[in-house]
From TrEMBL:
This is Sterol-4-alpha-carboxylate 3-dehydrogenase, decarboxylating. It is an enzyme of class 1 (oxidoreductase). GO terms for molecular function: 3-beta-hydroxysteroid dehydrogenase [NAD(P)+]/C4-decarboxylase activity. It is found in: Endoplasmic reticulum membrane; Lipid droplet. The lineage of its organism: Eukaryota, Metazoa, Chordata, Craniata, Vertebrata. It comes from Takifugu flavidus. It is a single-pass membrane protein. One of its GO terms (cellular component) is lipid droplet. Belongs to the 3-beta-HSD family.
Length: 345
């Protein structure tokens, strides 16, 4: 019988390694002495010693060379939530994740760490200090969330000690930091268009925003603790900054630091949510003839007007997780990294 060559446990692949989180993860892994191969649909940078494999993760033949000799795979690729394209989410997040699992098994990969999302339990209603045992959202608020739920289930169910294939899911929330293409750029764009004057609801809702380096730290801890006898196999873990903050205080701090006025006037949550729903329906109906993307989607309004913060006690206990960068420092470093987004720049 042929014996399988065990790949070095410092050899890993990052699927989605050109993206915001993926690139931060790759840079940290390289710093820590991992040999990394990146798989992505695009190449956004170069780094000495890094191998890039370009392709669609739904294509197993394209994936296999990137996973060759890797004992560990991080899967952090997904279409952007803003695309709101049902067919694309289903193809990439569900079918594509099946392909990733299949390719890992064929390539002899032993550990798969998925970037899931804390939003898999969010239905648009308040979540205060949510634990991992909350049920998945029965009525997910958008296609992104719907397919992230299926993706997480697929990865966790694939965990199989007999097959020497271990999986774990990291559920970050509201990732921000240098090079983030979503949170700060959308916020500034909204402010530049004069639409950032209003606070949705009473402005006291607490949420988690997580500095990207803490998310990276959580991923690496999960990978390094994923062993056949460890309690983390097949489980999801919240990774946050562990410092819930008022949504509107966080937004105001970032806006003011970049030279924009903080929102001041209050609008009733239910009114804005209803309008966002109406706009979203209109955009769906008119899609064949007119394409427009509303700034205030039902998902964004729900995120802006409700409590959604999560406990990371399980990660502290099982992974020894502790945020490495505070919210205050994370905001400072993020704002400094966006000189081109400053007012007047
Ligand atoms: N940002 C956040 O606040 C949160 C993110 N997450 C999760 O974290 C992960 C990373 O998110 P983030 O870094 O923000 O996202 P990015 O969009 O920055 O990164 C995702 C990367 O995956 C690539 N990609 C998309 N589709 C495919 C495909 N079919 N084959 C290969 N590569 C593909 C993207 O390419 P392209 O850009 O061309 O599409 C991009 O380079 C995602 O799984 C997301 O769901 C979870 C919670 C919060
Ligand atoms: C227009 C304003 C009212 C809000 C602007 C900020 C938003 C763009 C962001 C605030 C919370 C963010 C967030 C995500 C995307 C960007 C925000 C909506 C996610 C949906 C990204 C993907 C996830 O898995 C969950 C995130 C939750 C928080």
């Amino acid at each position: 019988m042929a014996t399988r060559v065990r790949p070095s446990n410092k050899r890993c692949a990052v699927i989605g390694g050109s993206g915001f989180l993926g690139r931060h993860l790759v840079e940290t892994l390289v710093d820590r002495g991992y040999s990394v191969s990146v798989f992505d649909i695009r190449q956004s940078y170069e780094l000495p010693g890094l191998t890039f494999h370009l392709g669609d993760l739904c294509d197993e033949q394209a994936l296999l060379p990137a996973l060759k000799n890797a004992s560990l795979v991080f899967h952090c690729a997904s279409p952007a939530p803003a695309s709101d394209d049902r067919e694309l989410f289903e193809r990439v997040n569900i079918q594509g994740t099946r392909t990733v699992i299949q390719a890992c098994l064929e390539a002899g990969v032993q550990k798969l760490v998925l970037t899931s999302s804390a939003s898999v339990v969010f239905e648009g209603k308040d979540i205060k200090n949510g634990q991992e045992d909350l049920p998945y959202a029965g009525k997910p608020i958008d296609y992104y969330t719907e397919t992230k739920i299926e993706q997480e289930k697929l990865v966790l169910q694939a965990c199989d000690r007999e097959k020497d294939f271990l999986t774990v899911a990291i559920r970050p929330h509201g990732i921000f930091g240098p090079r983030d293409p979503q949170l700060v750029p959308i916020l500034v764009d909204t402010a530049r268009r004069g639409k950032m004057k209003f606070i949705i609801g009473d402005g006291t809702n607490l949420v988690d925003f997580t500095f990207v380096e803490n998310v990276v730290h959580g991923h690496i801890l999960a990978a390094e603790n994923l062993r056949p006898n460890s309690p983390i196999c097949g489980k999801p873990y919240h990774i946050t900054n562990d410092e819930p903050v008022r949504f509107w205080d966080f937004m105001s701090e970032v806006l003011v630091a970049l030279g924009y006025a903080a929102p001041r006037f209050h609008l009733p949550y239910i009114l804005v949510y209803g309008l966002a729903l109406l706009l979203w329906l209109l955009s769906m109906i008119l899609r064949p003839v007119l394409s427009f993307k509303p700034t205030f989607t039902p998902m964004r309004v729900a995120l802006a007007g409700t409590h959604h913060y999560y406990s990371c006690d399980r990660a502290k206990q099982d992974l020894g997780y502790k945020p490495v960068v505070s919210l205050k420092e994370g905001i400072q470093r993020t704002v400094q990294s966006y000189p081109h987004l400053r007012k007047g720049a």
